[in-house]
Design goal:
The chain is an alpha/beta fold. The protein is about 35% helix and about 20% strand. It contains six helices and seven strands. The strands form two sheets. A five-stranded parallel beta sheet has the order 2-1-3-4-5, sandwiched between helices. It has a two-stranded antiparallel sheet with strand order 6-7. The longest helix has 28 residues.
Length: about 220
C-alpha cells in the first residue's frame, strides 16, 4: 500500500474530475469540503480534507512511453502528479456524467499512475441529469484496476433536483446554477466520509501489523 504514513490524520484528496470551463464540479467539491469540515473526524484532527483540481494539474493526454505498472515515469508532469496522489491516504472523486461515463480528463489522470493508487480508499460522488450513476459505475471499475478500494456509500446529485436554476436565463446551458442538495444528501456524504476514514484506518492497522510480523525462517 502506497500510503505516505501509517499514523497521523487520514489525508483525503477531493478530486475535481471535470476540467470543462464553467463546470459545476468546483461548486460540488466546495460543498464536500463544507460538509467535511463538520465531520467529527475532521473536527477532532483525525482527518484532513483537501481539494485536488485536475484543471490545475496540467496533464496532457497520456504521453509516458512505459506503462504505469512499471513505475518508470519519464516526464516531469507525471512525477509531479505521482507526488500529489502519493501524498494522500484516500480520495473522494467528484465527477459529472459525460455520455454515460466519466470525463476523459479523469480517466487520463487515473491512467498515468499505478503504484500511487494501490491500496488507497476512495468514495465516489457523481452528478448529472440522472445523477451520474453510470459514470460512477464506470469509475469504480477503472479504480478497481489500479487497486483502489471503493466504499459502498455513493452520493448522486441530480441536475434538476439538487441544483437551483431559478436565476438562470431561459435556455442557457452554460449557467452554473446554485447547488441546493436535497434533504438526505449531506447525511449520505457524511456516511461516505465515515467509511473512508474507517476503512483507511483499518488498512493502516493491517499494514502496521504485517510490518511487525516476524519473518519465518525455514
Amino acid at each position: 500500500m502506497q500510503n505516505t504514513q501509517t499514523s497521523g490524520p487520514v489525508r483525503i484528496g477531493v478530486i475535481v474530475g471535470s476540467t470543462r470551463p464553467g463546470r459545476r464540479g468546483t461548486a460540488v467539491a466546495g460543498w464536500v469540503s463544507q460538509v467535511a469540515s463538520r465531520h467529527p473526524a475532521v473536527r477532532d484532527g483525525n482527518a484532513v480534507v483537501e481539494l485536488v483540481d485536475l484543471a490545475e494539474q496540467g496533464l496532457p493526454l497520456l504521453d509516458e512511453p512505459v506503462p504505469a505498472l512499471f513505475g518508470d515515469y519519464r516526464n516531469p508532469h507525471t512525477r509531479r502528479w505521482a507526488g500529489v496522489v502519493g501524498g494522500y491516504d484516500a480520495f473522494l472523486f467528484v465527477t459529472p456524467d459525460y455520455n454515460r461515463s466519466i470525463p476523459a480528463a479523469l480517466k487520463n489522470a487515473v491512467d498515468y499512475l499505478y503504484a500511487e493508487w494501490n491500496g488507497k480508499v476512495a468514495g465516489v460522488l457523481t452528478y448529472g441529469v440522472q445523477g451520474g450513476t453510470r459514470a460512477g459505475d464506470h469509475l469504480q471499475t477503472v479504480l478497481g484496476e489500479v487497486r483502489v478500494v471503493v466504499v459502498p456509500t455513493r452520493v448522486s446529485l441530480g441536475l434538476f433536483t439538487d441544483f437551483d436554476f431559478s436565476g438562470a436565463p431561459p435556455g442557457d446551458p452554460t449557467h452554473p446554477a446554485r447547488l441546493d442538495p436535497e434533504d438526505g444528501r449531506e447525511q449520505s456524504l457524511t456516511t461516505m466520509l465515515t467509511e473512508i476514514v474507517t476503512w483507511t484506518t483499518a488498512l493502516r492497522t493491517a499494514e502496521a501489523a504485517a510490518d511487525r510480523r516476524p519473518e519465518l525462517v525455514g
